Amino acid sequence: MKIKTQGEVLAKLELETRKAMRDHEDRSVLTLIRAWRAVQVQMRSIILSEYMSDFPQKDWTLFEAKRKGTLIRIDHRITQALNIFFTFTHNHLLKVLLESHQQETLRALWMLAVTTPKSTVIKAPNGNAIREADVPEDATPWALRLSTWLGLLRNQININLTSQALAGNTLQEAAAEATDAKVKLPQGNFDFDGLLERMSRYEMISAQASARGDVSDANDDIITREVFMTLADDKVCPECEALEGAELSGPNDENYPPIHLGPCRCFVSQVPMEWAELLRSGTPEDQQFVKDLEELGMAPTAMAVRDSEGKIEGSVIVSFEDWSSKYGPVVGSAANAR
After folding, report:
1. What residue numbers bound the domain in which 207 lies?
2. Which 3 state secondary structure label does DSSP give 286?
3. Structure pTM?
4. Per residue in 235-290, pLDDT tens?
5. Assign residue 146 a region: left if phi > 0, alpha if psi is -120 to 50, beta otherwise?
């Protein structure tokens, strides 16, 4: 009789979870990138309109651009556009981080519920409340980083436009600065949209890892260890590959993902106590059942149950959709997520 083990089932559920969370990340990043593309179009329009207003018949010069206030007006309007974008991005990321934490919490609880006997109590962490660290305010590192990058980008646009005016370049050459300007950092020059994607993915994965830590804290009586896992594909960096399978000591572990701004796509896998061991601490029927399994030479991690006729079979793998439709709406207020 072939009955799946907890490890086999957990590996499959983890892959499903990572795909679902990756899809959520992709949708969220796409929303931000589209918003940024719209801002680039707006900045280009600002440069074109101010240039043509002051220099309808000729190319500009730095002297005339300063005398007429062209550069000042462009900077003022671009600053307004960037401030609006910051507010949109800030609010969008707050919403996305909340969703990431909630969805990862639900999926982590689901995996525990599926890979442990029905008599095992699975507890929702603190009513699934989002900790202060998971709902950042303006002063959080990511918000400050975003504000700094936008400020650097604005400065670079101003520098480039000044150089364009000094060289007497054309209208189209000046407008191109809205999309060509880079964010200059100590590590090099970067496209803003690339930085935006890396930062947002890093923060979403951080929220997911935080959710796993919360679930571990709430269920430390049945979770034996947390393990560092990669997606095991050709995009895994050497730093993360070296940590594959490493046991983690908790959220304060220096190797708790994400470990870099790459973005790191790694995650925490929570390993529950062996099926047989959980049965031993269950009901009298569970305790007798585990003795029967041992007599049959069944592996301690085999997910075995009795059917209605008393025959031994593999535990049914409940889909996330079916599980969450029953428990998802109440996890936020219920202590028991089984």
Report:
1. 6-330
2. helix
3. 0.86
4. 888 888 898 889 988 778 888 888 887 667 888 899 999 999 999 988 899 999 99
5. alpha
